[in-house]
Amino acid sequence: MGETISEAIGADHDSLDFYYENIKNALDDAAKVRWRNQLTWNLARHAISEELTLYPAMEKYLGDVGVQLSKTDKEQHLGVKNYLSQIQDMTPTDPKFWLLLDDLMSVLHHHIEHEKTEDMPRLEKLLSREESEALAGEFKRTKLIAPTRSHPSAPTEVHLETLAGLMTAPIDYLRNMVRDFPTDSDEREAEERIKNRKEDGAHDSTEDSDLNGTVRDTNW
Predict the structure, then answer these.
(1) Is the distance from CB of 10 to CB of 140 less than 8 angstroms?
(2) Tell me: the pLDDT tens digits for 99-156?
(3) Which residues of 130-166 are buried (b: 16+ CB within 10 A; e: fewer)?
(4) CA distance 83 to 194
(5) Integer Cα distance of 12 and 136 in angstroms
(6) 3-class SS at 92?
(7) What DSSP designation does 93 have?
């Protein structure tokens, strides 16, 4: 059984948070740049793919409500694209970088919440499992040919955006050939941080449980 559109979109959202955390926690500036490039690459493709697949489906199945929801989503995307366009070539040593990055993630999380609570429940309610999986497949295939950098001035009307994407994507891919992306070492360090965080969280939970038990015994 394949992913539904909600699951595919949600997996992308989780990966964006993962990249953000690794930008913040990377051990050196070069690694931070590599994770910045990864965030840019994924977020740019994600936004365009939503605009070319998810939002047209919302307009088709939800009618006027879908049109209004997709309009709101595209307005939110513009804010995301504007912030992303500012940091996609900015070095983490620039004092403005971290403020812009946090602003980007704040705007992005607001948009994600809108999709999670407004868009996806309404759309999934009207889709069969097969239709939802087909839409997820279309979303993922579109990411393969979408631009990999932010272009805030690009059109968002479906046909024009498709044409603009086909024109800019090859240029983006050429530019990415001289950009560094996370290495195997970066991935291992990130996985180790996540593992340690989970272990620390489990240890803290055990201590809290023991403390609560002691308090209950005392009260008894």
Answers:
(1) no
(2) 999 999 999 999 999 999 999 999 999 999 999 999 999 999 999 988 888 888 665 6
(3) ebbbbbbebbbebbebbbbbbbeebebeeeebbebbe
(4) 27
(5) 11
(6) coil
(7) T
What phi and psi values does residue 76 have, to the nearest 5 degrees? -65, -40
Tokens of 173: 């891919």
Cβ neighbours for 51, distance < 8 A, ≥ 6 positions apart? 74, 77, 156, 158, 161
Q: Where are the beta strands (DSSP E) in the chain?
A: none
> Which pTM does this prediction carry?
0.81
Cα end-to-end span (Å), the chain: 51
Query: Residue 64 and residue 191: Cα distance in Å, rounded?
Result: 44
- Secondary structure (3-state) at 218: helix
> How far apart (Å, rounded) are the C-alpha atoms in residues 200 and 20?
21
Please name which of 40, 152, 18, 46 lies closest in space to residue 92, comparing C-alpha atoms: 40
- DSSP per-residue letters across 16-30: HHHHHHHHHH-SSHH
